[in-house]
Design goal:
Length: 293
């Protein structure tokens, strides 16, 4: 069995498309297709069901995927132990992050890391969703919960707080609520509930039973902009809201606490570029921890 064939199979399994996998690996798509076919012939089984809109794993492919990932882990560890990979901080590291943390904090701070390591390329994907590390959608994921399943390595970045905020212009027109019950008389900004990718994002349940927002946005940065515009009262990340003088804390006794975690697949544990980025994230957050609390 040829390891390169296995590596190409992994790329197709993770992207779901031969063309996308070929672009990721930098090989011709016809060559990649032949190599996967050669792997299937060597195993005397069909691993992929090829369709016009992509590929999906056959039952045998599902079984082989787990074996292939174990092979990948061992190969990376072996190459690292003999100094064949990552002797320098080089290559691409993709970071998946919640949009609030990714845009408001990371985007302005990762440039310093690429200045330190000119051969390092950072891809930041700040979107409100989860990332599959086993399928290599990201090398490092910033999560709001510590993952309980999978072969993952996690470490806590920091706790952070959220609170109720409104634009001064809104409060001038609508008045300042003096108690939680008064919120029902105000316009409220919130998440699109059926698009919440984690139960811990349901902040409104910790404030009042029926938030019933008049304006729902499936993005933390979008909610911040809506509240700044005077759309209503929203539950915002305090470290983001404090950047805008036009935002006023409402009912400051209400504080919601959450945490950010860095998570990566254990097969990347020996990759210098991944460890370097994780260490940098910990360094930057540690230096600026007061803004989060």
């Amino acid at each position: 069995m040829n390891w390169d064939d296995v590596r190409m199979f992994l790329a197709v399994a993770r992207t779901g498309q031969i063309l996308a996998a070929s672009k990721r690996l930098g090989v011709n798509h016809a060559t990649l297709s032949r190599r996967v076919t050669a792997l299937e012939e060597s195993l005397q089984t069909r691993l992929l069901i090829r369709r016009t809109n992509g590929c999906e794993l056959s039952p045998e492919g599902e079984i082989f995927l787990h074996a292939a990932e174990r092979m990948e882990t061992e190969m990376l560890a072996a190459q690292s132990s003999i100094g064949r990979i990552d002797s320098a901080v080089a290559g691409t590291v993709r970071i998946g992050a919640p949009d609030g943390f990714g845009v408001a904090f990371l985007a302005s701070r990762l440039g310093r890391l690429t200045q330190r390591h000119p051969d390092l390329k950072i891809q930041l994907v700040p979107v409100p969703r989860t990332f599959s590390l086993s399928q290599r959608e990201a090398d490092i994921a910033i999560t709001i919960e510590r993952p309980e399943q999978g072969r993952l390595v996690s470490s806590k970045l920091t706790d952070y707080t959220l609170g109720l905020y409104a634009a001064q212009s809104y409060l001038d027109a609508a008045g300042v609520p003096e108690r939680v019950e008064a919120l029902k008389d105000h316009r409220r900004v919130g998440y699109v509930e059926d698009l919440l990718y984690s139960a811990s994002l349901n902040f409104t349940a910790e404030v009042m039973r029926n938030w019933n927002a008049t304006f729902e946005i499936s993005s933390a940065t979008g909610q911040t902009e809506a509240v700044r515009s005077g759309a209503g009262i929203g539950i915002l990340h305090s470290y983001i809201a404090r950047q805008y003088p036009e935002l006023v804390r409402v009912l400051p006794e209400i504080a919601i606490r959450r945490a950010y975690w860095t998570t990566y697949h254990e097969s990347a544990r020996e990759l210098v570029r991944v460890r370097t980025v994780v260490d940098y994230l910990q360094e930057r957050v540690s230096e600026e921890r007061p803004i989060f609390l």
